[in-house]
Every structure is written in structure tokens, then in C-alpha cells.
User: Fold this.
Amino acid sequence: KVDLTIDRWEKEVRDIISSTCGNSLDPDLFKAAIPTDTRFPEWYGLPKDHKDNLPLRPVVSACDSPLTNISVIIERILNQALQFAPAHLENTVECLELLKTQ
Assistant:
């Protein structure tokens, strides 16, 4: 029998974080990555009202899922690395200013 409970999901995520980067992460960051009080992601559909028969556009809401905390940490790490990417633009204003000067 496969255990598909939230507790099992949280345990799996904790084990993955521990085995991959537990020793190299700041202890506070490691603690923040561990999921607690999570729920299963929810699936729903938004109708494509511009098409015949109103087909649904699938959406998966991962708010409060077992991977929410780690995704926030990964996003912070990647945002810090973006400063070294030569082709990265912060926003539309920066893009327009760059186009004006060229």
C-alpha cells in the first residue's frame, strides 16, 4: 500500500532537503525549508471563453503544498544569482531605457 498522506509528503521533502543540502544550508534557512501544516495541491480549470465549447485551462494551485517553503528558498537563491546574468532585465522600465540608448 502506498502512503499518500500529507505527513508522508512532508517527511519525503524533509529527507530530500537533509540529504541534498542539509549540511551546507544555514540552520535557520534549513528550518524554514522544512514543510509544516501543508495540504495537497488543488487542481481546477479556468474556462477558455474565447473558444467554442468552453474548454478548461488546467491550473494547479500549490499554495501551502509540501514544496512551497523550498520553492521560496530556491527563488531567493536564484534571484541573487541573476545579478551575474548579462541578459537579465529587472522590469519593463529598464528594458525601455536600454532600448532608448541603443
The radius of gyration is 20 Å. The longest helix spans residues 6-21.
